[in-house]
Amino acid sequence: MQRAWRHRIASGTGLAGLLLGMLLAVIAFDNFLGGWRVDVTERRLHTLSQASHALLDELEHDIALRLYFSATLAQGMPQLRHHARYVEDLLREMVNAAGSRLTLTVVDPLPFTDAEDEAAATGVQAIPLGASGELLYFGLVASGRDAEGQLRSDVIRFLQPDREAFLEYEVMRLIHGLAQDRQPVVGLVSGLPVTGGFDPGSQRPRPAWTSIDQLRQLFDLEQLDLDGEDTLDDIDLLLLIHPRELGEASRRAIDRYALAGGPILVFIDPHAEASAPLGMFPDADTDSDLPDLLAAWGLRMRPERVLLDANRALVVSLGQGAPPLRHLAIAGFGPEDFAPDEVITAQLEQVNFATAGALEALDDAATTFVPLIRSSPNAALVPVEQVRYVTDPRQLGRGFEPDGKRHVVAARITGSARSAFPHGEGEPDAAAAGDINVVVVADTDVLSDPLWVSTESFFGRRIPVPWASNGDLLVNAVEQLTGGPALIGLRGRAGYQRPFTRVEALQRQAEARFLATEQELERRLRETEDRLAELERQRRDAGVDTLTLEQLDALETFQAEQLRIRRELRAVQRQLTEDIDRLGTRLKLLNILAVPALLVLAAVLLALQRRRRRQVVLYSNYRES
């Protein structure tokens, strides 16, 4: 009896001690280790990249984030709520990494409240929910003061779930833009009249290209004359478009700028359709290239070759009365041709190129060559002369033989590169090298209006109406390159939404099981409808308004068969849906009940084992006494 009481006291004391220890551990972790986190997700979804940590460590001004999410209205939208949870978790990771320099406030803008008015005033997009008229908000606003104390803000109007892979980049771009005290300066060097001017052919002024106009609205664009007195000292990015006949001094300046880490965006072309003298002087050179600089950066473009792509060829019109034809030298590249994890090409729908070239990485290059846009395998490189004088696009298809390669028309080049001019007074020596950030596009026509935008007149104003993503390609590239090495280093990441692979597999099995029955019923339905149509055709051919008794019997039989088959078909389709729902329900129950059941089973087995041991001990004590 005394031994039993001692056992109960010891058990109670041990339990109380265990609970007290757990409580002290929780308090200690909450007070001293509250910033510790362990990301156990398969793809480390909640771990910030090194580039984000570098940007957050460099913050000099306080920035406040306000996440507007209509959580109450989104109760019946599980996918959107899961995405919102991931957004909030990632933002809190950024706040934790930045310390006191970054704060986060989450706001639920309920209808007819001050919070809803505030969300609307900040520029967050409102999404109407059906006929109720209620508005759902899901956007992010960042605000902070610059070095002069002026309040600045920027907004992501709606955090789209389909852009989840690029969420980290978009938020860091928002923060980085506010952290800068001025607008980035883009230095433009162009051999084409991209900023407008006088057209000698029509004897009229011509407007600036729409892509350049858009760039000017977002950045401080300065046109440079490197062969004159302009320098690259005060710019944040160098934009080269069709750089023809640059002097050696200009190329040396570009070389020094690249080796110093200055970002460069280059548009070169084996045959620039938009070249000014093309209409008046057909034999004029229309190519542009920087062979010495490209070689130093680890790549080349063959200026005498133009890309033809049969799979991506666009249909062009040759004029009134002429049928539209596919032009193998004018290609429209889509998402399947873009690098999936590159921010520059993220969410682009279609980018159109005309007589583009192809970029190749050199075998001995020390730099990293990352393709951004590639052709289809049904492509080939042909001499420029084969395209220059073509008047009928069908000529390009005659004798066309694809080489089976996916040619690169746009690429990013990073890493250590050597100088293209290792000798000379005041120039780097042969061992000089630096980390470069360069994006090269093997076409200049991609920026011209005819390939991506049309212009409409609205009360005397020119309104550009884009029908392709060429302008977005330019803005994305400039935006990322002006963000510095850290922002350039950000890539797309795995999404938070994970597919239910087991449910999808079961769904495919169910669909396969019912597919044969459904196809057979559809075949019988078509046969029955064909018989009904044949009876109707016989009646019309006979020129009578009524059918014979035999035809009426056949008609009733076919109509009854038609109704029966349609009922069976609907039943099969309904059974397929119900079967898939049952499979999903069983998996949900399994996920909900399996783990508790296993824990209960483990607890029961442990209790039985302890009881058995206790009985053995009691029996041994009884034998000894």
Compact description:
With 625 residues, the chain is of the alpha+beta class. Helix content is 40%, strand content 21%.
Protein traits:
625 residues, alpha+beta, Glutaredoxin, Rossmann fold, seven-stranded mixed β-sheet
Question: What does this molecule look like?
Answer:
With 625 residues, the protein is an alpha+beta fold. Helix content is 40%, strand content 21%. The chain is built from 14 helices and 23 strands. The strands form seven sheets. It has a seven-stranded mixed β-sheet. Strands 1, 2, 3, 4 and 5 form a five-stranded mixed β-sheet that branches. The two termini are 13 Å apart.
Please give the number of β-strands: 23
In terms of per-residue confidence, which ranges show pLDDT below 50 for 5 or more consecutive residues? 276-281
Structural domains: how many: 4
Strand order of the largest sheet: 9-6-10-11-21-20-18
CATH class of the largest domain: Alpha Beta
Broad shape? extended
Percentage of residues assigned to helices: 40-55%
Mean pLDDT: 79
Blueprint of the fold:
Blueprint: H1 2-32, H2 50-57, E1 63-69, H3 78-98, E2 102-107, H4 114-122, E3 126-129, E4 134-145, E5 151-156, H5 167-179, E6 185-190, E7 197-199, E8 204-206, H6 210-218, E9 220-223, E10 237-241, H7 248-259, E11 264-267, H8 291-297, E12 299-301, E13 305-309, E14 313-316, E15 325-333, E16 351-354, E17 359-361, E18 368-374, E19 379-383, H9 385-388, H10 394-397, E20 408-418, E21 433-441, E22 453-458, E23 461-466, H11 470-481, H12 484-488, H13 501-542, H14 549-624
Helix pairs in contact: 6-11, 13-14
